[in-house]
Amino acid sequence: MKAVVLLDFWASPFGQRCRIALAEKGVDYEYREENVLGDKSPLLLQSNPVHKKIPVLIHDGKPVCESLIIVQYIDEAWPDRAPLLPADPYSRAQARFWADFVDVKFNECGSRLWKLKGEAQAAAKEEFIGILKLLEGELGDKKYFGGDAFGFVDVALAPFVSWFYSYETCAGFSIEEAAPKVAAWGKRCMERESVANALSHPDKIYEIVGVLKKKFGVE
Amino acid sequence: MDQSSSLKFLGSWADSHTHRVRLALKLKGLVFEYQEEDSANPSSALLLHNPIYKKVPALLHDGRPVVESLVILQYIDETWTDNPIMHADPFERAIVRFWCHFADDKLGPAVGLVFSSAGEGQKAAVDQVHENLKLLERELRDGAFKGRRFFGGDNIGLLDIVLGCGSYWLAVFEEVMEVKLVDPDTFPLFHAWLRDFEEQKEVKETIPPIDKLLEYARGIRQMMLSLSTDTTTATTIGAPATGSTTSNNDAAVEEIGLLQESLVL
Fold first, then answer.
1. Is the CB of B70 less than 8 angstroms away from the CB of A96?
2. Half-sphere exposure of B71 (CA within 13 A, CB side)
3. Whose C-alpha in B63, B87, B219, B236 is 20 to 30 A from the C-alpha of A46?
4. What is the per-residue pLDDT across A38-87, written as a single tens digit (0 to 9) for each?
5. What's the number of CA atoms in the CB half-sphere (13 Å) around residue A34?
6. Which residues of B touch A78 (CB under 8 A)?
7. Cβ atoms of residues B240 and B227 within 8 Å
8. Domain ranges (residues) in chain B
9. Per-residue pLDDT reduced to its tens digit, A165-196
10. Tell me, what's the pLDDT at B231?
């Protein structure tokens, strides 16, 4: 086993955050695919006994769980290059706030766009557009959420760029229209090797969403 | 300790997240101005400084807002670096962050559910709390926190603050709801840690007196029970009813929802 191992699932945006961070830092690691739809490996159960979920980063045998915690760990364990969090405490606080926002608001609402139908879905769409506009405001005219440098919030949100097509198609709206700066940011992220290598193709994600919709009984 | 800057902090007296921030400020020896907020009726200042979530706590440092208690705690630690509440080691920091999330995402909501449910639903909620406490007990006994006085080591750290400010509700709920949550025989290490934590000077100065908390909890429980239509089989009391409540009830249900949120660990 290499010094750095990532237990992951190919389509997981949370796993992709970790892959992006490791790539930005130029850290060599072993990627291990977990079959999230089947049996969990003994290594996963041993490394994340509380939640039994990917991603898990194992560094010199010690496991770190939860994607944003893993990304902060990667930033702190390899502090000499490509800093993901800014140096100044106030900017760090803002970055942590917005990364948490991506989980609590963006992803939570985004999942309702394909989990729900009819009126409930329409309400989720309105809410999601509101969330996009908040991100639009926070991004402003910056190149990245981190400013000139690709940072923590960018890592947190970038994997969801490949979900944009699914959100738009399921709920019937355009992210380009609702939040043009965020859409442009998404394209800029895809130009980064770390992001392009980590993300799944939007069509593949749409396929996965189809499978999930059947599981949730929404069709 | 030099403090040439101004600190103002918006909170609510019974809110455990507010207590987290207050305790951290005390541990750092910081001077601050406090503004009490009514969670059902946020001030214009709170709406200005926390427009997205509109909740306490909110810390204003030289007028600049920081919100979300875990974000605030780390901000305080990184800005005033004496008496650190976080270790320098990245792995230790990751473990602490993991269990802080566990407190907020698993244990806290489970405890809140004990309070807001009855009958079978409450029994299930109590079981869930026990399952969560077992995981913490195991970490104290054999895992990441083995042999430590506090989760942070010899001194109170971030995880102690997060778990501790809220764990006092366990004793309150035990009395109000007549359920057993932290049995010292089943959870000896957690129980011992909590007693030790609550004895610390800064903690005593932060947590409201138990009789005030009991009165508060009893009041809310009364309100919840009087709003529910069936107290014997209802699994969740206080969940907003859809369309069938009067406007008076709507306001009360909303208030209960907000209060419930502030009660969780």
1. yes
2. 21
3. B87
4. 889 999 999 999 999 999 999 999 999 999 999 999 999 999 999 999 99
5. 23
6. none
7. no
8. 7-79, 90-205
9. 999 999 999 999 999 999 999 999 999 999 99
10. 44
Residue A162 and residue A114 share a domain:
yes
* A50 vs B contacts (CB less than 8 Å): 102, 135
Assigned domain for A63 exists: yes
Is B121 within 8 Å of B236 (Cβ atoms)? yes
A56 reaches B (C-beta below 8 A): no
Question: What number of other Cβ atoms are within 10 A of residue B102's Cβ?
Answer: 23
- Please judge whether B67 and A134 are an interchain contact, meaning their C-beta atoms are less than 8 angstroms apart: no
- Contacts with B71 from chain A: Cβ below 8 Å: 93, 96-97, 100
Decide if A84 is inside a domain: no
Residues A24 and A50 in one domain: yes
pLDDT at position B243 over 70: no
Contacts by A36-43, CB closer than 8 A, 24 or more apart: A36/A9, A36/A12, A41/A7, A43/A7
Residues of A in contact with B135 (CB under 8 A): 50
CATH number of the domain at A37, please: 3.40.30.10
Architecture of domain B7-79: 3-Layer(aba) Sandwich (3.40)
Pairing of strands B7-11, A56-59: unpaired
Count how many domains chain A has.
2
Note the pLDDT of residue B71.
Answer: 98
How near does any CA of chain A get to the CA of B77, in Å?
A: 9
Distances A175 to A134, A184, B86, B152, B180 between C-alpha atoms, Å = 13, 10, 40, 44, 50
Reported ipTM: the value is: 0.96
> A153-166, pLDDT tens digit by residue?
999 999 999 999 99
Q: Where are the beta strands (DSSP E) in chain A?
A: 4-8, 30-33, 56-59, 62-65
The answer to whether position A83 is within a domain reads no
Q: Distance between CA atoms of B197 and B53, rounded to whole angstroms?
A: 30
Q: Tell me: domain B90-205, CATH 1.10.10.410, correct? A: no
Q: Find the largest Cα–Cα distance for chain B.
A: 57
